[in-house]
Here is the input.
Amino acid sequence: MLETPATAASPLRNPKKRFQAKHGSQRAFPGGFTLIELLVVIAIIAILASMLLPALSKAKERAKAATCMNNMKQIGLAGTMYAQDNGDTYFHLGGGSLPNDGQWFANPRSTVLLAANNGYAYWAIGYYDYYNKNRNIFGCPAAKRTDEWWDDGARPHWDWDFWRNSTIAMCQYLLTRSPYANVDPDEPGSVKKTSSYKIPTKMIFAQDGAEQKMEGPDDSIGLFPGKSQILTQWIGQPPYGGLSSLYGGYRWDYEWYRHSRGNQTIWVDGHVSRIKFTGLGVGIDYRHYTGATPKNPIAD
Here is the structure.
C-alpha cells in the first residue's frame, strides 16, 4: 500500500506524534510559565511589597495627622468664637472649673446629649453650638484608647466606640490659677480671660491626650516643678504601672504622642502645631499650661 502524504502525517503512523496525541505536548500552553518562572515572579512581587509597605504606612499616618489637624483647627475656632460671645472667657462651670469626665451621653444606649454641667460631661459639650454639633472632630483618627474611667467602679467597661469622640484633652489651668503661681508671678489670675495669657501663641487650649481634663503635674506632657517625669499617673515609672495596670499595661504615653511620636496641640491664638516627643523625663515647659511666660518656649 502506497503511503499518501495524509497517511504519512497521521499520528497513528508516527510514534512521537502518537505519544503527544495521547499525553499532550511537553508544554500545553506555548505562552505559559514554568514553575521556576512563577516562583521568581512571586519572589519579586514580595520584595516590592515589602519595600512599599513602610511607605504606605507612613502615608496613612500622615493622612491621620492631617485629618486631626483640620479637626483641631475647627475646635480652636469654636473656642475663639465662644470666648468672643462670653466675655472673653472659655466655657467653665463657675470659678473657672472645667468638666472632669469624657461622656457625651449617659450610656451607650442613650441618644440624649448630657447637659454641659453634668458631672459626667465631656468639656466639648460646652462649645456644642460652635462647631456645627459635629462630635466626630473630637475623635482623633490616630487614637486607640482614651480614659474610659475603669478606675470608677460605678461604671461598666463600655466599648471603645462610646469614648471614641473624647480624645482631645484640656488642662484645668487654662482657666484657673495653678499651685505654681507663686513661682511665676506673671501667671494670670482666675477666672482667666483669653486676653490675660502673656503669650497666646504659647498657651495651650487643648491637645492630643487620654485624660479629658488634665490637672497638670501627673497627667500632661508638661514637666512641673518638683517632678522628674511626665504622665506618672498614667504610666507610673516604666515598665508601665499607674493607671496603665488597669488596662493591661497599655502604653498611655502613646495617646499623648499619637502622630509619629508627636503631640498635636491647639494654642489659644487658634493655630495648631506638633510637639515632638523629647523623653518622659523632659516633656515641655509647664508654663505652656498656666499662661505664664515660658522660660523654654516650644519652637514653632
In short: Residues 23-29 have pLDDT under 50 and may be disordered. The first strand starts at residue 168 and ends at 171. The two ends are 102 Å apart (CA to CA).
